[in-house]
TrEMBL record:
It comes from the Bacteria. Allows the formation of correctly charged Asn-tRNA(Asn) or Gln-tRNA(Gln) through the transamidation of misacylated Asp-tRNA(Asn) or Glu-tRNA(Gln) in organisms which lack either or both of asparaginyl-tRNA or glutaminyl-tRNA synthetases. The reaction takes place in the presence of glutamine and ATP through an activated phospho-Asp-tRNA(Asn) or phospho-Glu-tRNA(Gln). This is Aspartyl/glutamyl-tRNA(Asn/Gln) amidotransferase subunit C. One of its GO terms (molecular function) is transferase activity. The keyword Metal-binding does not apply. It comes from Pseudorhodobacter turbinis. The keyword Protein biosynthesis applies. Transmembrane segments: none annotated. Heterotrimer of A, B and C subunits. GO terms for biological process: glutaminyl-tRNAGln biosynthesis via transamidation; regulation of translational fidelity; translation. Belongs to the GatC family.
């Protein structure tokens, strides 16, 4: 698949990066190369290959899914300009 200059311009806009008009042809070529690599990966037969989280076999340590406050309230509020009753105190905002 080949990317043209207009598509490269649109991708840059969607990514919110500024690309000079003179640099668009090079960007289009690079994006075309990336898509070429992706097409090569689609040709690889991965039937029967299990997904992995690391290149070395290891078991992930799981922890209990329990909601806690972390027991560090004092550390969190230590730098607060105004804290009351264990919470950040902010000025009232009225419209």
């Amino acid at each position: 698949m080949s990317i043209d200059i207009d598509t490269a311009r649109k991708v840059a806009k969607l990514a919110r990066i500024r690309v000079e008009e003179a640099d668009l042809p090079a960007l289009a070529t690079e994006l075309s190369g990336i898509l070429g690599f992706m097409e090569q990966l689609n040709e690889v037969d991965v039937e029967g290959v299990e997904p992995m989280t690391s290149v070395t076999p290891m078991h992930l340590r799981l922890r209990a899914d329990v909601v806690t406050d972390g027991n560090i309230t004092d550390q969190i509020l230590k730098n607060a300009p105004d804290a009351r009753e264990g919470f950040f105190a902010v000025p009232k905002v009225m419209e």
